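subagent[fold] <- orchestrator: predict structure for attached chain, return tokens only, no commentary.
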Amino acid sequence: MLETLLSTLKRYRLLISIFVLISSSIATYFTWQHFWPVASDPNWSYSVYLDDIPMVSALVIDHEGNLFVSQEFRDGKGLIFKRARDGTRQDIVTHLSKPDGLAVYQDGIAIGQEVDGAELLWWHDGKATPLLIGQSIEGLASDGTALFAVEDRKLQGRLLRYDAAEKNVEV
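subagent[fold] -> orchestrator:
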């Protein structure tokens, strides 16, 4: 009887010890993230180009040197703005839902939206043209001809390839 009681107490003590170890590891990790954020090497230098821009998610520079910035707000409040080389700012596409991916594509900019059923847009000649419907498109890239899009979905993510000449999508 006494041996059974001691064996049970040892098991409980082991389980409590494991729980305390895991809990303290998690707490240490989050404390480290809060108090010691990423810092640059002391030999690097940088300057702030733009500030006070909430929810910036993606940046791309076009062939003319214009900077395009996505502000990743939800529910049609997201937008893409262009910062021209002369410093002027212009909202080019508004009413987006979580615009995330940006890429230089042909003579314009491709814009992904990280929500299911949203259009992947191609902004050119001052207008946005829908290319395809995606499911949480987050990353975009182009080889100059084709446009590649990554869908950010748990266990169901896909890499899409859009061919402008054929106007078709390959998975």
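orchestrator: received. Logging for downstream: The CA atoms of residues 92 and 127 lie 8 Å apart. The chain has a mean pLDDT of 87.
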